[in-house]
Specification:
By secondary structure, the protein is of the alpha+beta class. It contains five helices and ten strands, in the order ααββαββααββββββ. The chain has a domain of 151 residues: endopeptidase fold (from Nostoc punctiforme) (Alpha-Beta Complex). Helices cover 47% and strands 13% of the residues. A hairpin with a 3-residue loop joins β8 and β9. The longest helix has 83 residues.
């Protein structure tokens, strides 16, 4: 081992190349600065250097607030537009639904009206057929009921059993006045709304006949059939009012004259006739006297 091994060295440590370069650059910069300063002082007649200053735009301190407000406004407008679009779609859907419901309701009403019209027409056809059948039967009866001496059906008629000539049983009291007046009108014309003395309709004849007994009856057949007391067809008495149809809603009336016969203003083709019950059987009867 060397006898100098433990003696510390007095040499300065080497500086690294990078540090030396930095120091050289700094020194060079200082020297350049000094040279430029000397040159400037040596040439006093040179024109002074004019420095140009660029003005930078000044930013408003409230710009951020305005931008934030604009963004918020745009967002709100977008939201309102979306809401308006949704409301428009809902309104259009509601209008479409309402139009469909209205169309369906109109179709249902039209179908109902058509059905009611068809029912009414069918009822009218049936009523017309019934009237035609009654007219045909009455025409046949009128021919059969005429006597061989050419007298009217009011004085001689065929009985219900068809056993030969039949003379009507006499009525008494007020019933006689009603029956006798009605029989005196046989052969006169039928005119709708007629109340005498030259023409009658069915209720006009009944009203005029009962007036002879001092009794005032309503003008129309439906009201006349609602008067008095209802009686069965098997217990009729002269002067009873016969009706066709339902009571209080009858469409035809006549006067029972006894012996299974009645007198009524039948229709324009027959006028006032006396006929048997089997010619046109009534629905029911009421008793006024």
């Amino acid at each position: 081992m060397s006898h100098t091994a433990h003696i510390p060295s007095h040499r300065k440590p080497r500086r690294s190349a990078s540090k030396l370069a930095v120091r050289a650059g700094v020194a060079g910069g200082v020297l350049s600065t000094l040279a430029m300063a000397g040159t400037a002082s040596a040439t006093p007649s040179a024109e002074p250097v004019t420095e140009t200053t660029l003005e930078m735009p000044v930013l408003d301190a409230d710009l951020a607030s305005e931008v934030s407000s604009a963004v918020a406004t745009a967002a709100e407008n977008t939201r309102l537009a979306a809401v308006e679009g949704e409301l428009t779609a809902q309104e259009e859907s509601a209008r479409t639904g309402a139009a469909a419901e209205a169309k369906k309701a109109k179709e249902d009403a039209q179908q109902k009206a058509d059905a009611e019209k068809k029912t009414q027409e069918e009822a009218a056809r049936k009523a017309e057929a019934e009237r035609a059948n009654r007219s045909t039967a009455r025409a046949s009866l009128s021919t059969k009921s005429a006597g061989s001496d050419g007298s009217s059906a009011g004085t001689k008629a065929t009985s219900n059993q068809g056993t030969g000539a039949y003379v009507a049983a006499p009525a008494t009291g007020s019933a006689a006045a009603v029956v006798n007046f009605a029989r005196a009108q046989v052969g006169k014309a039928y005119v709708s709304g007629g109340t005498g003395p030259s023409s009658y309709d069915c209720s006009g004849l009944v009203q005029a006949a009962y007036r002879q007994a001092g009794i005032s009856l309503p003008r129309v057949s439906s009201a006349q059939s609602s008067m008095g007391t209802s009686v069965s067809l098997s217990s009729l008495q002269p002067g009873d009012i016969l009706y066709w149809g339902s009571r209080s809603s009858s469409y035809h009336v006549a006067i029972y004259t006894g012996g299974g016969k009645f007198i009524g203003a039948q229709n324009p083709s027959k006028g006032v006739v006396e006929a048997t019950m089997n010619y046109d059987k009534p629905t029911g009867a009421v008793r006024i006297l």
